[in-house]
Amino acid sequence: MTFALLSTDELKALVRTVPDFPKPGIQFRDITTLIGHPVGMADSVQHLAQLAKACGAQKIAGMEARGFIFGAAVAVELGIGFLPVRKPGKLPIETIGIDYALEYGVDRLEVDPGAIGKGEAIVIVDDLIATGGTALATAQLLRSAGANVENALFVIDLPDLGGAAKLRDAGLTVQTLMEFEGD
């Protein structure tokens, strides 16, 4: 017996909004209520997996930390590998990395270069796209390692922050399950 997936509107209703976090005026979109709902989590992964499959994904990349939740689940669903994009110093081998700008400072992402095949179609999966800095750095890092990165999938888009547009300007196709207007 098969069941219809929850619609994206039904999934959106499972995302909790926390006002004034982490500072006044911010409407924080909290996915813990979505991932804690067994059908919501499963159906979110199914929706993302369908999109990734249509993109021809050979591997899924997810950024630390919430990208690990959705990215690994999508990879398992598709029967393909998962590539963790880590914060610095987390991998026990020689890595390649990229530094990228934050609002106040610089951060770094690293990967195992041996985990990326030349020309391999890698799809980025994460929980949320806000300003796009981390996702853009991830795409640049994977491309520098020889991957073919053309697609990025997110559960949530905050379009007012411009991240999806920034990724599109960098040549990525961006797809999301839902969006929330405002910060």
From TrEMBL:
Function: Catalyzes a salvage reaction resulting in the formation of AMP, that is energically less costly than de novo synthesis.
Protein name: Adenine phosphoribosyltransferase
Metabolic or biological pathway: Purine metabolism; AMP biosynthesis via salvage pathway; AMP from adenine: step 1/1
Domain Phosphoribosyltransferase residues, every copy: 59-150
NCBIfam families: apt, PRK02304.1-3, PRK02304.1-5
Binding partners and assembly: Homodimer.
Entry-linked InterPro entries: Ade_phspho_trans, PRTase_dom, UPRTase/APRTase
Matches recorded under Pfam families: Pribosyltran
Reaction(s) catalysed by this chain's protein: AMP + diphosphate = 5-phospho-alpha-D-ribose 1-diphosphate + adenine
Any Gene Ontology biological process: adenine salvage
Family stated for the protein in its record: Belongs to the purine/pyrimidine phosphoribosyltransferase family.
Entry's Gene Ontology molecular function annotations: adenine binding; adenine phosphoribosyltransferase activity; AMP binding
Keywords, alphabetical: Cytoplasm, Glycosyltransferase, Purine salvage, Transferase
One GO cellular component term noted in the UniProt record for this chain: cytoplasm
Compartments, record wording: Cytoplasm
Enzyme class: transferase
EC number: 2.4.2.7
